[in-house]
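INFO batch 0412 | record 1 of 1 | parsing
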Amino acid sequence: MKDPTEIETRYWSSSRTGGMDREIRRANARLRHFRGIAASVMSDAQALWQEIWDLLQDSRSAEEILDGSNSSACRLSAGEASSLVLEKLHLLGVLIDYAGRLCEGSIGDLPHKEGEQ
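INFO prediction complete | emitting tokens
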């Protein structure tokens, strides 16, 4: 006959391993979720950066720039472009700040105030 403690130990080990497997699966699911959110935020930030970059590009040729000619194909006035770029830069800063706090694990903490580190 087997020793009763051996059976109990074997049962305890297998149930403990099952619990560890469940925790590993849960941790992997959380990591996949985190990676999905981080990838989405960074994709949005990169798309916004591209919009800003495109707004700041000069449609004139090098010769036109050197001659100092104004572009007749300008999409927005200088004031509109400046306002739009500033708005997009602010949004880009918000996205980058969120991504940083997401990676630090401080998303659920107290609200983040602008200008604080």
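INFO post-check: The two ends are 67 Å apart (CA to CA).
INFO record closed
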